[in-house]
Structure formats: structure tokens, C-alpha cells
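## retry 2 of 3
previous attempt timed out at serialization; input unchanged, resubmitting
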Amino acid sequence: MKRLFILISALPLLAFAQNYPVTKKTPQTITRHGITFTDDYTWLENMRSPETENWVHAQNDLTDKHLGGLMSKIYPLPTLVKYDNQTDFNIPNKNRKYFYSLVRYTDDALQTASLAYKKKLDGAFIALVNPNFFYSGKTVNIIDYEPSVNSKTLAYKLMINGSDQHEIRFVTVDGGKKLPEVIKNAKFGGMAWKADEGVFYNKNINTSQFAVDSTFQVYYHKVGTDVTTDKMVFDASDAKGQTHYFTSADGTRLFLTVANKRESEVDVYYADLTKDNFELKKFIDKSPPDFDLSGYTNGRIYYSSKESNWGDVRSFDPDSPAEKKVVIPQYQNQLLIHAYFFENRILCKYKNLDGSYLMLFDYNGKFIKKIQTPKAMDIDVAGSDYYDKDIFFYLSSYTIPPILFTLNLETGANDRFVSKTFTKTTAPFPVDYFESKSTTYTSRDGVQVPITIVYKKGTVLNGNNPTLLEAYGGFGVVNLPGYDNGLIYFLNNGGVYAYAEVRGGGDKGRDWHRQGRRLKKINTLNDFIDAAQYLIAQGYTSPARLAITGGSQGGLLVGSALVQHPELFKVAIPKVGVYDMAKFHDYTIGRFHFDEYGNPEDAKEFAAMMEYSPYHNIKDNVNYPTTLIITSDNDDRVPPVHSFKFAAKLQNRAAQTNPVYLKTRSNSGHYGVTTNREDKLKEESDFYAFLLYHINR
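## retry succeeded, writing output
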């Protein structure tokens, strides 16, 4: 293994083509709240124009040529295919009566997985839906499915070319008859069943894909009827608010919350679906957003209060919403990740610095059992149903693929699950081949920030290790370790991986999020920079061997870090990031993110955003690190215009001698390639080839 690393380190340098596609400038001087800046690339905001598409095509040609040239020097793909074959794992998803799974009926790696089900766990798969036959020339995959209360009909969602605007279709579970109705432009939210009769869904009315989002209306569709007759049951257009809804396990109750544009107030509604002409009635008016509705059982609503930093479980009777009680209190320094509600039990997932674990309670809050995981491992519940008495959970880590267990909800008894009908994963390396260290570092303002560092056992920390630092840092998102064969490849070739749980995420509770949003968003960037300096100071790496990556909000973070502190990094690979903070709210769901980033119409908040906005902080006289900017042509969550303009401005400066590449994935959305195995592995191979080649130059 050491010889392979030396080979990579000694690779001959490729000739970098600095002849970027011709990128014209159309300067516009903009003054807002006393801040003046010039935007040279507004023409790229017309993302579907022939001129922009030609420019994107030329950028892809340049990038593909470079990535193709790396194949003769370093080529991870064959190894990734081998690892993937060993670790392919089909976790049974129990939903209502049956077990569902996405399976492949052919060896064609370009085929999207089909949806099938089993009546018994050890039974044969029965085919239901093959998404490959719906559209010609488009990438289509099933991203969600939900059986009706008695498993009579299955509703499923199709993602087409990666867009967040989905289709909902229906199939009978017994017999697999495809029903004719097709709901188009369903966006966000699930498919909540009213018994076996029909589903509630969110409808988007945008006429332009990248325009400001207009998903304000909740509709009801009765199975077997024309979708044009669907009934609108709630309209949040006046508040321009996001809606969240769910139905009770028996499909007889509908609960809906709507937050205003800033998410500073929440209204809560309830409907009795046993009535023919049901209507939503408000029972909580303009409440502070101090709770997240979680479930309904035994006549009570259950929620987790934002009054509790670490998370708790509370409940109230919808007829007496003021009479709230704490069922499961918060535990200091033990973060409640999720609460699962079953007929007689509440199963809670917690996280601390050592990893995650499960706690089993009854509905009086009585503790029954704790399922502790080995250090540095994550635990998660596999598919299960409200009425189940036995469920599945699995353990995994950055370096160990999922291991499946059973759990009895009555007693808490658990054991390893082994079955001839489910493939067992085989890790590419022994479980002790890699080390995972969870610790904290001190930020510039004295706050202790968690960080996880993974590397091959025996790695000499000589300050010269190729290191990849990643973070997200937004929306209260909690980082949980996930197994990744590409990361295994990187680690086995001498790499060190670090994930910093910076402020803005939810890793240390709700206050951790508050300390990294709006006017305090700069803390997210500062924590990330401090993580880089910590890795350097502790002898893991050096600026000549340090790379950074992140996606979406993490892409914004990486973009900001590379322009604010280019001296710290050798390589940057931001993915589907937000880079133009002056205009983020002009597209798709940006308007929902005022609570995270601030409102550009507010002078103080606009000034704070401009302090870290990647696009606006690029300087003409700086040579920034080697960069690969990754986006998707059909990303209507973070539109590709952010990446287009960011790449254009980085490339078109005389001081930029390090290469800057733009890769726009075709027929893809926010999550990149999701439809077939071959393309996903190719994309991961390109990422690690680029990373290893440039970090070792």
C-alpha cells in the first residue's frame, strides 16, 4: 500500500489547459444598502439560453478532457466497482404489511432500480414498478413510496432528470395494476394517505423552473378520479409559507403546520378525516416555532420542543393544546436525533461525541432499554411500521458498511440478523484497519467544536498527509457517519479525512444552530477555518496537502473558505453551492432561507451576508487554490447559475494560474447522479482521481 502512495506522489505533472472558454463580461454596478459591487456575469443568469448552454458545454469539454487525462495516471473506478460489489446491501423496508425494496432485475448498470415487494421477509420479490419505461431519453427514478393504510394501493414518486418537481403515480399492491392518474408538479412533502381512499400532496405552480418557488398549496387526490378534480385543502399563498403535514397511522386524522416566510411564527391545523366533508381547523395560532410535530397516537400529538436545546419529547391533546406535558426529558450533552413512534413504544435515537445509540421508552416515559453502539459508529432504524413489535436497525461508520440487527420493541432484546435472502456486506478491510478519532478543537472565540478524523492505522502524522476536510454547517443539520467506498479508497492511499461539526449545524443542540445563522453565520466560516488550522497545527497535514469539500450549504462554506483564506488550501471541490448571496432569494427555494442567511432587504443582514458571500469576495490579484466546481443542469434547489458565475469570475483574472474547472452534470439535480450504479461510480471515481492527483502535486 505504501508503494502505491509513492507512485501517486511521483506522478508526472499534466499540462493544464488555461485556455478557458471565452466568457464575456456584462458589467452591472449595483448599490444596495450603501454597499456597491459590480456583477460582470449576469448574462449567465439566463440558464437555458443557447449562449449559456454553449458556454457550459465548452466548460464540460475542458473538464472532461482533464479528468480523462488523469485516467492513465490514477484510476479509482475498477477498485470502486470491486468495493461496491462487496458492500452492496439491501436493507428490508417494512411499510404497513409488506417489505419493499428497490432491486435490479438485470446486470445492466445503466438501468434504474425497480420497485418490488415481499409478502414475507424470506419470500420472493414481486415486481411492482420499473421506472425505466416511463420516459424515453430521460433519467427517471423512484424516490419515495407509501402504501395505503391497508396496503391496497401504493403511491410512489418519480424524480425526472433530478428535478424537485416530481410525479406521483399509483399501483395496486395485489396484482401490480398501474392506475391511469398522474399527479404532476408535486414538490416537497410526502404522500399522506386518508385510509385507502387518497393522498394529500404539495402542489407547485411555477411556470419557470428556476423562478422563486410557489409551493404553497396542499391538495387531496382521491384514487380512481381525474387529477384535474383534486381538491385544494389548504392555501398558504398569502403567508408565502412552507407547509408540513402528516396523517395518523390509521389514516383518520390530518395534521398540518404552516410557517410564515421567515419561519418566526407557526400555525397548526387539524382535520377529522372520518367525515365526508372534512375541513382543517386551526387549533394553535401564531405560535413561536418551539416545536416540531412528530406523531399522533392514543389521542395525543407528540412533538420535540425547541425550548429544549438537546431535544425532548412532549405531548398534548389537540382539544386542549395548552395542556402540554414532557414525556421524555432532555439529557444534557445527549442530542436527540429522532423519535420513532410505535403503537406501544417510543424509540429515540441519540448522539454524543462517541457515536449514537437507541433508547426505548413506553408512552409514560418509562425507560426500557438502551442499545449502545461501539465507539464512532452510527445506528439507524431500517424500514418499520407503526404496529410492528419487531423491527430492524443497522450499525455503520465511515469505514464499516451496514450491519443489520433485529430489535423487539416489547423487551428491547436485540440480535444480529442473518438471512439467506439478504446479501451480507463484506468490508474491503478488517474493522480495525482504520482509526476514527472524535475530539474537539478550540475556535477563535473559545468555543469547543467537535471534529472526527479518520485515517489508516499506522499513518505517521508528519504534517505532510493528503487531507480532506469537510463540513456542512447549516439549517441545524446533524452530521452522522455514512459508509463510502470512495472514502475507503482515499484513506487506503494515505489520505486523512476530517469532518468538522461547525456552528450552524445541530450537532450540539438547537443553540449550536442559532450560533451559526443569520447575523452569526460568519461563525460557520470561522469554525471551518479554525478546523483547517487545527489539522495543520496538530501535524495531520499542511496547506500544501489540504483539500476541502462540501455540498449545498457545505458548498457555500467551501466557496467562502477558499476565497477568504486561499493560503490554507491546496485543492477545493465545492458542490451545488450557493455563491451569490446578493441574489440567492431570487431563485427557487431561496426565499425559505431567510431564517438561515438573513433577508437581503434588511441592511444589517445584507451586510453580514456580503461579508462571506463567495462570489463577491473574489479578489483580482489572488491566485486561488486548484478548484473543481460541481453543479447540475437541472438543480432547481440551488440553481446552477451560482456555480456558473463563481467559475467565470475565478477563471477570468490574470492572477489565477492554478486551474479552475467547472463540471455541470447533465440530466441531474441537487443530489447529482442518483439513477444508476455505473454513473454514480464514475462520478465518485472522477472526484477522488482529481483530489488525489492535485493534492499530491
